[in-house]
Amino acid sequence: MNKNLSHPKGEHKKARNSELDLIPVDTFGGRVHVKWDSQATLTPLGQLAFFIEFLKTSSLFNEWIEQCPMIFSSPNAPNKRDILVHRQVNFVS
């Protein structure tokens, strides 16, 4: 057994580069880039962008829309998606 081989202690420090801090997230509105602020104690949207990506990737959101029992007979009626998503969240990309 070679005593010179050892596991390095801790994790390597990553270089701090603003481009590395941008995390691409696919949403229903297109791809956005989330910048993580490790110094902030609170963010207005928290993990919402990542949850939206999860809903899109897993198709759970589309299944929820399709399984909704709402039926409208008027030709002027909005579609189910517009009713269920009553508030649009805009991300800065």
Describe this structure in words.
- By secondary structure, the chain is an alpha+beta fold.
- It has a domain at 18-37 and 44-84.
- The protein has four helices and two strands, in the order H-E-E-H-H-H.
- The protein has helices spanning 18-21, 48-58, 60-67, 80-84; strands spanning 22-27, 30-35.
- Strands 1-2 form a two-stranded antiparallel sheet.
- A hairpin with a 2-residue loop joins strand 1 and strand 2.
- The longest helix is centred in the middle third of the chain and has 11 residues, at 48-58.
- The termini are far apart.
- The model is unreliable at 88-93 (pLDDT under 50).
Topology summary:
Elements: H1 18-21, E1 22-27, E2 30-35, H2 48-58, H3 60-67, H4 80-84
Antiparallel strand pairs: 1-2
Form type: elongated
Overall mean pLDDT stands at 77
Please tally the helical runs, counting DSSP H or I stretches of 4 or more residues: 4
Give me the oligomer status. Answer: single chain
Output the helix-strand order.
HEEHHH
By secondary-structure content and strand pairing, the structural class works out as: alpha+beta
Quick take:
The protein contains four helices and two strands. With 93 residues, it is of the alpha+beta class.
Main features:
single chain, 93 residues, alpha+beta, disordered C terminus
